[in-house]
Amino acid sequence: MKHSDNAILQRARQFDSQTLAWIYDEYSSAIFAYAYRLTGSAYLAEECVSETFSRLLQALQMGGGPESNLKAYLYRTAHNWITDQFRRQTPLVDGLDDEIEIVADNKISTQAFLEQKDEKKEIRNALRVLTPDQRLVITLRFLEDQTINQVAAALGKPNGAVKSLQHRALQTLKRVLNKSIKGSQDE
Amino acid sequence: MNKPIDDQKLEIEIQNQFKVLRDIPVRDADAVIAGREKFLSQAAEIRANLPVSKSEGSRHSNQSRNLSTLFGLRKEPLPMLAQIGLAILLAFTLLAGGGGATVYASQSSQPDDLLYPVKTWSEDIRYQLTNSEMEQLQLSLEFTERRLEELQWMQQNQTPAEDALIERLQLHIQNSLQLMTQLQLSEQDQLQIRDRLRTQDQLMEQLQLMQGIPEDGLLLQAREMIKLQLRLAGVEIEDPVQTQQQTQQQQQTGQSEDSPQNQQEGQGPLNGTGTGNGPEYQNGPDEPAGVCQENQTDCEPVQNQEQNQEQNQEQSQEQSQEQNQEQDQTQQQNQQQEPGGEPAQSSPEPEPKGGK
Protein backbone atom coordinates (compact mmCIF):
# COMPACT_ATOMS: atom_id res chain seq x y z
CA MET A 1 0.00 0.00 0.00
CA LYS A 2 2.77 2.38 0.96
CA HIS A 3 4.72 1.43 -2.12
CA SER A 4 1.84 2.26 -4.43
CA ASP A 5 1.35 5.55 -2.58
CA ASN A 6 4.99 6.32 -3.27
CA ALA A 7 4.60 5.55 -6.97
CA ILE A 8 1.54 7.79 -7.17
CA LEU A 9 3.33 10.56 -5.37
CA GLN A 10 6.30 10.31 -7.67
CA ARG A 11 4.05 10.82 -10.69
CA ALA A 12 2.14 13.56 -8.87
CA ARG A 13 5.41 15.43 -8.34
CA GLN A 14 5.78 15.51 -12.12
CA PHE A 15 2.23 16.95 -12.24
CA ASP A 16 1.00 14.07 -14.37
CA SER A 17 -2.61 15.02 -15.11
CA GLN A 18 -3.97 11.45 -15.08
CA THR A 19 -2.45 10.74 -11.68
CA LEU A 20 -3.71 14.01 -10.25
CA ALA A 21 -7.21 13.34 -11.61
CA TRP A 22 -7.11 9.90 -10.01
CA ILE A 23 -6.04 11.44 -6.68
CA TYR A 24 -8.95 13.88 -6.80
CA ASP A 25 -11.51 11.22 -7.70
CA GLU A 26 -10.19 8.85 -5.07
CA TYR A 27 -9.96 11.18 -2.08
CA SER A 28 -12.16 14.25 -2.61
CA SER A 29 -15.34 12.51 -1.38
CA ALA A 30 -13.66 11.42 1.86
CA ILE A 31 -12.38 14.95 2.48
CA PHE A 32 -15.85 16.35 1.72
CA ALA A 33 -17.46 13.97 4.23
CA TYR A 34 -14.88 14.81 6.87
CA ALA A 35 -15.35 18.56 6.40
CA TYR A 36 -19.14 18.29 6.29
CA ARG A 37 -19.28 16.35 9.54
CA LEU A 38 -17.27 19.03 11.30
CA THR A 39 -18.76 22.16 9.77
CA GLY A 40 -22.31 21.01 9.03
CA SER A 41 -22.28 22.93 5.75
CA ALA A 42 -22.00 21.47 2.24
CA TYR A 43 -20.79 24.84 0.97
CA LEU A 44 -17.92 25.01 3.49
CA ALA A 45 -17.12 21.35 2.87
CA GLU A 46 -16.70 22.02 -0.88
CA GLU A 47 -14.52 25.02 -0.01
CA CYS A 48 -12.44 22.78 2.20
CA VAL A 49 -11.99 20.19 -0.58
CA SER A 50 -10.95 22.86 -3.04
CA GLU A 51 -8.45 24.44 -0.63
CA THR A 52 -7.03 21.10 0.49
CA PHE A 53 -6.23 19.97 -3.05
CA SER A 54 -4.91 23.39 -3.98
CA ARG A 55 -2.54 23.29 -0.99
CA LEU A 56 -1.38 19.86 -2.07
CA LEU A 57 -0.38 21.24 -5.47
CA GLN A 58 1.37 24.21 -3.88
CA ALA A 59 3.29 21.91 -1.56
CA LEU A 60 4.33 19.63 -4.43
CA GLN A 61 5.45 22.64 -6.40
CA MET A 62 7.67 23.75 -3.50
CA GLY A 63 9.20 20.28 -3.33
CA GLY A 64 7.25 19.43 -0.17
CA GLY A 65 4.05 17.49 0.24
CA PRO A 66 3.52 14.01 1.61
CA GLU A 67 6.37 11.55 1.64
CA SER A 68 4.31 8.39 1.97
CA ASN A 69 0.74 8.53 3.24
CA LEU A 70 -1.21 10.77 0.89
CA LYS A 71 -4.63 10.28 2.47
CA ALA A 72 -3.29 11.12 5.93
CA TYR A 73 -1.69 14.24 4.51
CA LEU A 74 -4.95 15.34 2.90
CA TYR A 75 -6.87 14.80 6.14
CA ARG A 76 -4.33 16.84 8.03
CA THR A 77 -4.48 19.68 5.51
CA ALA A 78 -8.28 19.67 5.58
CA HIS A 79 -8.16 19.61 9.36
CA ASN A 80 -5.88 22.66 9.38
CA TRP A 81 -8.24 24.54 7.12
CA ILE A 82 -11.22 23.72 9.36
CA THR A 83 -9.25 24.73 12.45
CA ASP A 84 -8.57 28.07 10.74
CA GLN A 85 -12.29 28.49 10.18
CA PHE A 86 -13.04 27.75 13.83
CA ARG A 87 -10.39 30.18 14.97
CA ARG A 88 -11.61 32.97 12.77
CA GLN A 89 -14.75 32.67 14.85
CA THR A 90 -16.77 32.28 11.70
CA PRO A 91 -20.17 31.17 12.96
CA LEU A 92 -20.89 27.69 11.72
CA VAL A 93 -23.44 27.80 8.96
CA ASP A 94 -26.61 26.12 10.03
CA GLY A 95 -26.70 23.91 6.92
CA LEU A 96 -30.49 23.75 7.03
CA ASP A 97 -30.95 22.89 3.36
CA ASP A 98 -28.42 20.08 3.58
CA GLU A 99 -30.10 18.74 6.73
CA ILE A 100 -33.53 18.85 5.09
CA GLU A 101 -32.14 16.87 2.19
CA ILE A 102 -30.85 14.21 4.58
CA VAL A 103 -34.19 14.17 6.40
CA ALA A 104 -36.05 13.72 3.11
CA ASP A 105 -33.80 10.80 2.29
CA ASN A 106 -34.28 9.19 5.68
CA LYS A 107 -37.98 10.07 5.99
CA ILE A 108 -38.01 11.11 9.66
CA SER A 109 -40.60 13.30 11.40
CA THR A 110 -40.20 17.05 11.88
CA GLN A 111 -39.84 16.72 15.63
CA ALA A 112 -37.20 14.06 15.29
CA PHE A 113 -35.46 16.26 12.74
CA LEU A 114 -35.38 19.24 15.12
CA GLU A 115 -34.12 17.09 17.98
CA GLN A 116 -31.43 15.64 15.77
CA LYS A 117 -30.46 19.11 14.63
CA ASP A 118 -29.96 20.25 18.24
CA GLU A 119 -28.00 17.12 19.00
CA LYS A 120 -25.69 17.72 16.03
CA LYS A 121 -25.13 21.30 17.10
CA GLU A 122 -24.22 20.21 20.63
CA ILE A 123 -21.73 17.65 19.37
CA ARG A 124 -20.12 20.10 16.94
CA ASN A 125 -19.84 22.68 19.73
CA ALA A 126 -18.34 20.08 22.05
CA LEU A 127 -15.77 19.26 19.36
CA ARG A 128 -14.78 22.92 19.23
CA VAL A 129 -13.81 22.79 22.91
CA LEU A 130 -11.10 20.23 22.09
CA THR A 131 -7.58 21.19 21.06
CA PRO A 132 -6.93 20.84 17.30
CA ASP A 133 -4.98 17.59 17.75
CA GLN A 134 -7.63 16.09 20.03
CA ARG A 135 -10.34 17.03 17.54
CA LEU A 136 -8.49 15.37 14.68
CA VAL A 137 -8.06 12.18 16.69
CA ILE A 138 -11.73 12.03 17.70
CA THR A 139 -13.13 12.76 14.26
CA LEU A 140 -10.86 10.31 12.49
CA ARG A 141 -11.44 7.59 15.06
CA PHE A 142 -15.17 7.92 15.64
CA LEU A 143 -16.48 9.46 12.44
CA GLU A 144 -14.07 8.18 9.81
CA ASP A 145 -13.50 4.81 11.54
CA GLN A 146 -9.73 4.98 11.25
CA THR A 147 -7.38 2.87 13.33
CA ILE A 148 -4.92 4.28 15.86
CA ASN A 149 -2.11 3.60 13.35
CA GLN A 150 -3.85 5.56 10.62
CA VAL A 151 -4.55 8.48 12.95
CA ALA A 152 -0.93 8.41 14.12
CA ALA A 153 0.16 8.70 10.48
CA ALA A 154 -2.19 11.63 9.90
CA LEU A 155 -0.93 13.40 13.00
CA GLY A 156 2.71 12.44 12.58
CA LYS A 157 2.83 11.26 16.20
CA PRO A 158 3.52 7.90 17.84
CA ASN A 159 0.63 5.57 18.69
CA GLY A 160 1.03 6.16 22.43
CA ALA A 161 0.61 9.91 21.99
CA VAL A 162 -2.55 9.33 19.93
CA LYS A 163 -4.02 7.07 22.62
CA SER A 164 -3.27 9.64 25.26
CA LEU A 165 -4.84 12.41 23.15
CA GLN A 166 -7.90 10.23 22.60
CA HIS A 167 -8.24 9.49 26.31
CA ARG A 168 -8.09 13.16 27.28
CA ALA A 169 -10.44 14.17 24.48
CA LEU A 170 -13.01 11.55 25.48
CA GLN A 171 -12.96 12.73 29.09
CA THR A 172 -13.50 16.31 27.98
CA LEU A 173 -16.26 15.37 25.56
CA LYS A 174 -18.03 13.37 28.25
CA ARG A 175 -18.03 16.34 30.59
CA VAL A 176 -19.06 18.88 27.96
CA LEU A 177 -21.83 16.71 26.54
CA ASN A 178 -23.15 15.79 29.98
CA LYS A 179 -23.23 19.45 30.90
CA SER A 180 -25.16 20.44 27.80
CA ILE A 181 -27.63 17.58 28.32
CA LYS A 182 -28.18 18.68 31.92
CA GLY A 183 -28.53 22.28 30.75
CA SER A 184 -31.20 21.43 28.19
CA GLN A 185 -33.08 19.30 30.75
CA ASP A 186 -33.08 22.19 33.25
CA GLU A 187 -34.53 24.49 30.62
CA MET B 1 -7.94 -2.64 36.19
CA ASN B 2 -11.29 -0.84 35.72
CA LYS B 3 -9.78 1.96 33.73
CA PRO B 4 -9.55 0.28 30.32
CA ILE B 5 -13.11 -0.98 30.74
CA ASP B 6 -14.29 2.54 31.61
CA ASP B 7 -12.45 3.87 28.56
CA GLN B 8 -14.06 1.26 26.34
CA LYS B 9 -17.50 2.11 27.72
CA LEU B 10 -16.87 5.77 27.12
CA GLU B 11 -15.65 5.07 23.58
CA ILE B 12 -18.86 3.18 22.80
CA GLU B 13 -20.96 5.90 24.40
CA ILE B 14 -19.30 8.67 22.38
CA GLN B 15 -19.45 6.57 19.23
CA ASN B 16 -23.21 6.21 19.70
CA GLN B 17 -23.65 9.91 20.29
CA PHE B 18 -21.62 10.70 17.19
CA LYS B 19 -23.86 8.56 14.98
CA VAL B 20 -26.03 11.58 14.17
CA LEU B 21 -23.08 13.22 12.42
CA ARG B 22 -22.51 10.29 10.11
CA ASP B 23 -25.16 11.18 7.55
CA ILE B 24 -23.88 13.43 4.79
CA PRO B 25 -25.82 14.93 1.90
CA VAL B 26 -25.18 13.88 -1.68
CA ARG B 27 -22.53 16.10 -3.22
CA ASP B 28 -23.67 18.58 -5.80
CA ALA B 29 -22.49 17.08 -9.13
CA ASP B 30 -21.80 20.52 -10.63
CA ALA B 31 -19.68 21.48 -7.64
CA VAL B 32 -17.69 18.26 -7.96
CA ILE B 33 -17.02 18.83 -11.66
CA ALA B 34 -16.12 22.48 -11.11
CA GLY B 35 -13.78 21.59 -8.24
CA ARG B 36 -12.07 18.88 -10.28
CA GLU B 37 -11.57 21.18 -13.25
CA LYS B 38 -10.19 23.93 -11.06
CA PHE B 39 -7.73 21.50 -9.49
CA LEU B 40 -6.56 20.11 -12.82
CA SER B 41 -6.21 23.54 -14.42
CA GLN B 42 -4.14 24.70 -11.45
CA ALA B 43 -1.95 21.63 -11.91
CA ALA B 44 -1.61 22.31 -15.66
CA GLU B 45 -0.55 25.87 -14.93
CA ILE B 46 2.12 24.69 -12.53
CA ARG B 47 3.30 22.02 -15.00
CA ALA B 48 3.68 24.66 -17.71
CA ASN B 49 5.90 26.74 -15.44
CA LEU B 50 8.05 23.91 -14.14
CA PRO B 51 11.80 24.60 -14.30
CA VAL B 52 13.76 22.67 -16.93
CA SER B 53 16.51 21.64 -14.54
CA LYS B 54 15.83 18.90 -12.04
CA SER B 55 15.19 19.80 -8.45
CA GLU B 56 18.20 20.20 -6.19
CA GLY B 57 17.58 16.94 -4.42
CA SER B 58 17.73 14.86 -7.58
CA ARG B 59 20.78 16.58 -9.10
CA HIS B 60 24.01 14.61 -9.09
CA SER B 61 26.31 15.84 -6.38
CA ASN B 62 30.08 15.56 -6.85
CA GLN B 63 30.68 15.70 -3.14
CA SER B 64 29.62 12.47 -1.57
CA ARG B 65 29.59 12.44 2.20
CA ASN B 66 30.48 9.37 4.16
CA LEU B 67 32.08 8.42 7.44
CA SER B 68 35.60 8.93 6.12
CA THR B 69 34.93 12.65 5.90
CA LEU B 70 34.66 12.70 9.66
CA PHE B 71 37.60 12.26 12.06
CA GLY B 72 40.10 14.05 9.79
CA LEU B 73 40.23 11.40 7.06
CA ARG B 74 38.77 13.71 4.49
CA LYS B 75 40.90 15.54 1.94
CA GLU B 76 39.98 18.90 3.33
CA PRO B 77 40.28 18.55 7.09
CA LEU B 78 37.67 20.10 9.31
CA PRO B 79 38.54 23.53 10.66
CA MET B 80 40.35 23.28 14.00
CA LEU B 81 37.47 24.64 16.07
CA ALA B 82 35.08 22.09 14.62
CA GLN B 83 37.53 19.29 15.47
CA ILE B 84 37.82 20.46 19.09
CA GLY B 85 34.05 20.76 19.31
CA LEU B 86 33.64 17.26 17.95
CA ALA B 87 36.11 15.87 20.51
CA ILE B 88 34.32 17.57 23.41
CA LEU B 89 30.99 16.31 22.15
CA LEU B 90 32.27 12.76 21.92
CA ALA B 91 33.76 12.87 25.43
CA PHE B 92 30.59 14.34 26.88
CA THR B 93 28.44 11.72 25.16
CA LEU B 94 30.60 8.88 26.49
CA LEU B 95 30.59 10.28 30.03
CA ALA B 96 26.92 11.05 30.14
CA GLY B 97 25.79 7.92 28.34
CA GLY B 98 24.33 6.16 31.38
CA GLY B 99 22.75 9.27 32.80
CA GLY B 100 21.29 10.10 29.43
CA ALA B 101 19.26 6.92 29.43
CA THR B 102 17.79 7.81 32.84
CA VAL B 103 16.96 11.33 31.70
CA TYR B 104 15.34 9.93 28.56
CA ALA B 105 13.31 7.47 30.60
CA SER B 106 12.20 10.24 32.96
CA GLN B 107 10.63 12.34 30.19
CA SER B 108 7.34 10.45 30.26
CA SER B 109 7.14 10.35 34.06
CA GLN B 110 4.25 11.89 35.97
CA PRO B 111 4.49 14.00 39.19
CA ASP B 112 4.07 11.01 41.52
CA ASP B 113 6.75 8.93 39.76
CA LEU B 114 10.22 8.36 41.17
CA LEU B 115 11.85 9.74 38.04
CA TYR B 116 9.84 12.96 38.02
CA PRO B 117 12.52 15.04 39.80
CA VAL B 118 14.97 13.93 37.08
CA LYS B 119 12.53 15.21 34.49
CA THR B 120 12.24 18.66 36.09
CA TRP B 121 15.97 18.78 36.73
CA SER B 122 16.73 17.98 33.08
CA GLU B 123 14.28 20.70 32.04
CA ASP B 124 16.10 23.23 34.21
CA ILE B 125 19.45 22.21 32.75
CA ARG B 126 18.10 22.43 29.21
CA TYR B 127 16.75 25.89 29.92
CA GLN B 128 19.99 27.07 31.52
CA LEU B 129 22.15 25.74 28.69
CA THR B 130 20.10 27.49 26.04
CA ASN B 131 21.76 30.69 24.89
CA SER B 132 19.19 31.96 22.48
CA GLU B 133 16.25 33.78 24.04
CA MET B 134 14.00 32.55 21.26
CA GLU B 135 14.82 28.95 22.14
CA GLN B 136 14.26 29.74 25.82
CA LEU B 137 10.82 31.04 24.91
CA GLN B 138 10.06 27.86 22.95
CA LEU B 139 11.20 25.77 25.92
CA SER B 140 9.07 27.74 28.37
CA LEU B 141 6.03 27.19 26.19
CA GLU B 142 6.80 23.49 25.87
CA PHE B 143 7.25 23.11 29.63
CA THR B 144 3.99 24.97 30.27
CA GLU B 145 2.16 22.48 28.09
CA ARG B 146 3.83 19.61 29.92
CA ARG B 147 2.75 20.96 33.31
CA LEU B 148 -0.81 21.42 32.09
CA GLU B 149 -0.92 17.86 30.79
CA GLU B 150 0.47 16.62 34.10
CA LEU B 151 -2.24 18.53 35.97
CA GLN B 152 -4.87 16.95 33.72
CA TRP B 153 -3.40 13.53 34.37
CA MET B 154 -3.48 14.13 38.14
CA GLN B 155 -7.05 15.32 38.08
CA GLN B 156 -8.12 12.35 36.02
CA ASN B 157 -6.46 10.07 38.56
CA GLN B 158 -8.00 12.07 41.39
CA THR B 159 -4.59 12.90 42.80
CA PRO B 160 -4.47 16.32 44.46
CA ALA B 161 -2.18 18.70 42.58
CA GLU B 162 0.74 19.93 44.64
CA ASP B 163 1.32 23.65 44.95
CA ALA B 164 4.92 23.11 43.81
CA LEU B 165 3.66 21.84 40.46
CA ILE B 166 1.39 24.82 39.92
CA GLU B 167 4.14 27.18 41.06
CA ARG B 168 6.41 25.60 38.49
CA LEU B 169 3.72 26.11 35.88
CA GLN B 170 3.51 29.76 36.88
CA LEU B 171 7.28 30.08 36.59
CA HIS B 172 7.25 28.77 33.01
CA ILE B 173 4.41 31.10 32.08
CA GLN B 174 6.20 34.01 33.72
CA ASN B 175 9.39 33.22 31.80
CA SER B 176 7.60 33.07 28.48
CA LEU B 177 5.64 36.24 29.28
CA GLN B 178 8.85 38.08 30.01
CA LEU B 179 10.60 36.79 26.89
CA MET B 180 7.62 37.60 24.70
CA THR B 181 7.75 41.25 25.71
CA GLN B 182 11.52 41.41 25.19
CA LEU B 183 11.91 39.64 21.87
CA GLN B 184 11.36 40.98 18.38
CA LEU B 185 9.64 37.94 16.94
CA SER B 186 9.58 37.08 13.28
CA GLU B 187 6.21 36.51 11.67
CA GLN B 188 6.73 32.76 11.51
CA ASP B 189 7.69 32.58 15.20
CA GLN B 190 4.65 34.64 16.07
CA LEU B 191 2.43 32.23 14.15
CA GLN B 192 3.83 29.28 16.04
CA ILE B 193 3.69 30.93 19.48
CA ARG B 194 0.15 32.10 19.02
CA ASP B 195 -0.91 28.57 18.20
CA ARG B 196 0.79 27.12 21.27
CA LEU B 197 -0.78 29.72 23.53
CA ARG B 198 -4.19 28.82 22.21
CA THR B 199 -3.58 25.17 22.93
CA GLN B 200 -2.49 26.09 26.47
CA ASP B 201 -5.64 28.13 26.98
CA GLN B 202 -7.75 25.21 25.82
CA LEU B 203 -5.94 22.81 28.13
CA MET B 204 -6.59 25.23 30.99
CA GLU B 205 -10.24 25.40 30.03
CA GLN B 206 -10.41 21.61 30.05
CA LEU B 207 -8.85 21.57 33.51
CA GLN B 208 -11.53 23.90 34.79
CA LEU B 209 -14.22 21.78 33.22
CA MET B 210 -13.28 18.87 35.46
CA GLN B 211 -15.96 18.21 37.98
CA GLY B 212 -15.47 18.15 41.74
CA ILE B 213 -12.17 19.98 41.65
CA PRO B 214 -12.00 22.86 44.09
CA GLU B 215 -10.98 26.11 42.47
CA ASP B 216 -7.34 26.63 43.10
CA GLY B 217 -6.18 30.21 43.52
CA LEU B 218 -2.77 29.49 42.05
CA LEU B 219 -4.33 27.78 39.06
CA LEU B 220 -6.69 30.67 38.44
CA GLN B 221 -3.71 32.99 38.61
CA ALA B 222 -1.88 30.84 36.05
CA ARG B 223 -4.89 30.95 33.73
CA GLU B 224 -5.01 34.73 33.98
CA MET B 225 -1.34 34.81 33.03
CA ILE B 226 -1.99 32.68 29.96
CA LYS B 227 -4.84 34.97 29.00
CA LEU B 228 -2.52 37.94 29.37
CA GLN B 229 -0.04 36.23 27.06
CA LEU B 230 -2.79 35.61 24.54
CA ARG B 231 -3.72 39.27 24.66
CA LEU B 232 -0.08 40.22 24.20
CA ALA B 233 0.04 37.95 21.18
CA GLY B 234 -3.00 39.72 19.78
CA VAL B 235 -5.39 36.82 20.20
CA GLU B 236 -8.98 37.60 20.85
CA ILE B 237 -10.16 35.39 23.70
CA GLU B 238 -13.58 33.99 23.21
CA ASP B 239 -15.51 30.95 24.18
CA PRO B 240 -16.51 29.15 20.97
CA VAL B 241 -19.78 27.92 22.43
CA GLN B 242 -20.63 31.37 23.73
CA THR B 243 -19.66 32.94 20.44
CA GLN B 244 -21.96 30.67 18.57
CA GLN B 245 -24.81 31.43 20.93
CA GLN B 246 -24.17 35.12 20.42
CA THR B 247 -24.12 34.79 16.67
CA GLN B 248 -27.32 32.80 16.77
CA GLN B 249 -28.92 35.58 18.78
CA GLN B 250 -27.67 38.05 16.21
CA GLN B 251 -29.10 35.93 13.46
CA GLN B 252 -32.46 35.93 15.21
CA THR B 253 -32.46 39.70 15.51
CA GLY B 254 -31.62 39.89 11.85
CA GLN B 255 -28.30 41.65 12.35
CA SER B 256 -26.03 39.04 10.95
CA GLU B 257 -25.45 38.30 7.32
CA ASP B 258 -25.38 34.60 7.47
CA SER B 259 -25.15 33.48 3.91
CA PRO B 260 -22.05 31.45 3.31
CA GLN B 261 -20.99 33.84 0.58
CA ASN B 262 -21.01 36.74 2.98
CA GLN B 263 -19.08 34.83 5.57
CA GLN B 264 -16.47 33.94 3.07
CA GLU B 265 -15.91 37.43 1.80
CA GLY B 266 -12.46 38.49 2.85
CA GLN B 267 -12.13 35.49 5.11
CA GLY B 268 -11.48 32.76 2.63
CA PRO B 269 -8.37 30.70 2.88
CA LEU B 270 -6.58 32.81 0.35
CA ASN B 271 -7.33 36.03 2.13
CA GLY B 272 -6.44 34.80 5.57
CA THR B 273 -3.01 33.99 6.82
CA GLY B 274 -2.45 32.78 3.33
CA THR B 275 0.90 31.16 3.88
CA GLY B 276 -0.40 27.70 4.55
CA ASN B 277 -0.10 25.22 1.80
CA GLY B 278 -0.15 21.98 3.64
CA PRO B 279 0.91 20.76 7.02
CA GLU B 280 4.46 22.03 6.63
CA TYR B 281 3.34 25.53 5.94
CA GLN B 282 0.27 25.40 8.04
CA ASN B 283 -1.74 28.27 9.10
CA GLY B 284 -2.62 25.34 10.79
CA PRO B 285 -2.30 24.27 14.10
CA ASP B 286 -1.20 27.07 12.17
CA GLU B 287 -2.11 30.26 13.52
CA PRO B 288 0.14 33.04 14.41
CA ALA B 289 1.20 34.71 17.60
CA GLY B 290 1.17 38.44 17.32
CA VAL B 291 -0.19 38.39 13.80
CA CYS B 292 -3.78 39.32 13.40
CA GLN B 293 -6.32 38.25 10.88
CA GLU B 294 -7.29 40.79 8.31
CA ASN B 295 -10.84 40.88 9.56
CA GLN B 296 -10.10 40.85 13.25
CA THR B 297 -10.86 44.42 14.10
CA ASP B 298 -9.97 44.43 17.77
CA CYS B 299 -6.82 42.38 17.57
CA GLU B 300 -3.42 44.00 17.64
CA PRO B 301 -0.10 42.26 17.55
CA VAL B 302 2.40 43.04 20.29
CA GLN B 303 4.70 45.14 18.19
CA ASN B 304 1.82 47.11 16.72
CA GLN B 305 0.46 47.76 20.20
CA GLU B 306 3.78 49.23 21.24
CA GLN B 307 3.97 51.33 18.11
CA ASN B 308 0.41 52.53 18.65
CA GLN B 309 1.19 53.50 22.22
CA GLU B 310 4.15 55.54 21.03
CA GLN B 311 2.03 57.13 18.34
CA ASN B 312 -0.69 57.93 20.86
CA GLN B 313 1.83 59.57 23.16
CA GLU B 314 3.21 61.66 20.33
CA GLN B 315 -0.27 62.64 19.25
CA SER B 316 -1.29 63.68 22.75
CA GLN B 317 1.90 65.72 23.07
CA GLU B 318 1.18 67.47 19.79
CA GLN B 319 -2.39 68.12 20.87
CA SER B 320 -1.34 69.65 24.17
CA GLN B 321 1.16 71.86 22.34
CA GLU B 322 -1.58 73.07 20.01
CA GLN B 323 -3.89 73.72 22.96
CA ASN B 324 -1.21 75.75 24.71
CA GLN B 325 -0.60 77.81 21.60
CA GLU B 326 -4.33 78.48 21.28
CA GLN B 327 -4.51 79.51 24.94
CA ASP B 328 -1.57 81.90 24.48
CA GLN B 329 -3.23 83.44 21.45
CA THR B 330 -6.56 83.98 23.23
CA GLN B 331 -4.74 85.52 26.17
CA GLN B 332 -2.94 87.93 23.89
CA GLN B 333 -6.19 88.81 22.12
CA ASN B 334 -7.91 89.46 25.43
CA GLN B 335 -5.09 91.66 26.57
CA GLN B 336 -5.29 93.64 23.34
CA GLN B 337 -9.05 94.03 23.65
CA GLU B 338 -8.83 95.14 27.30
CA PRO B 339 -5.69 97.19 27.42
CA GLY B 340 -6.47 98.90 30.71
CA GLY B 341 -8.55 96.19 32.25
CA GLU B 342 -7.67 93.08 34.13
CA PRO B 343 -5.94 90.35 32.18
CA ALA B 344 -8.27 87.64 30.92
CA GLN B 345 -8.68 84.62 33.18
CA SER B 346 -5.95 82.17 32.63
CA SER B 347 -6.40 78.47 33.01
CA PRO B 348 -6.10 77.29 36.59
CA GLU B 349 -3.41 74.81 35.69
CA PRO B 350 0.20 75.82 35.13
CA GLU B 351 0.98 75.98 31.44
CA PRO B 352 3.11 73.04 30.38
CA LYS B 353 5.42 74.77 27.90
CA GLY B 354 6.28 72.56 25.05
CA GLY B 355 4.03 69.91 26.46
CA LYS B 356 6.90 67.61 27.41
SSE topology string of chain B: HHHHHHHHHHH
CATH architectural group of the largest domain in chain A: Orthogonal Bundle
Number of helices of chain B: 11
For this structure, the quaternary state is heterodimer
Give the end-to-end Cα distance of chain A, rounded to a whole number of Å: 52 Å
Low-confidence stretches of chain A: none
Give the biggest sheet of chain A.
Answer: none
How are the elements arranged and paired?
The complex is a heterodimer of chains A (187) and B (356).
Chain A: H1 2-13, H2 17-39, H3 42-61, H4 70-87, H5 96-106, H6 110-129, H7 132-142, H8 148-155, H9 159-186
Helix pairs in contact in A: 2-3, 2-4, 3-4, 4-8, 6-9, 7-8, 7-9, 8-9
Chain B: H1 2-17, H2 29-48, H3 80-106, H4 116-129, H5 133-156, H6 163-182, H7 187-209, H8 217-232, H9 240-252, H10 260-264, H11 302-337
Helix pairs in contact in B: 3-4, 5-6, 5-7, 6-8, 7-8
Concise description?
By secondary structure, chain A is an all-alpha fold. In chain A, 81% of the residues lie in helices and 0% in strands. Chain B has helices at 2-17, 29-48, 80-106, 116-129, 133-156, 163-182, 187-209, 217-232, 240-252, 260-264, 302-337.
Features of the shown structure:
heterodimer; A: Rna Polymerase Sigma Factor, Chain: A; Arc Repressor Mutant, subunit A; 81% helix; globular; B: 356 residues; mainly alpha; 11 helices; disordered C terminus
Plain-language structure description:
With 187 residues, chain A is mainly alpha-helical. Chain A is built from nine helices and no strands. In chain A, 81% of the residues lie in helices and 0% in strands. The radius of gyration of chain A is 18 Å and the shape is globular. The C terminus of chain B is likely disordered.
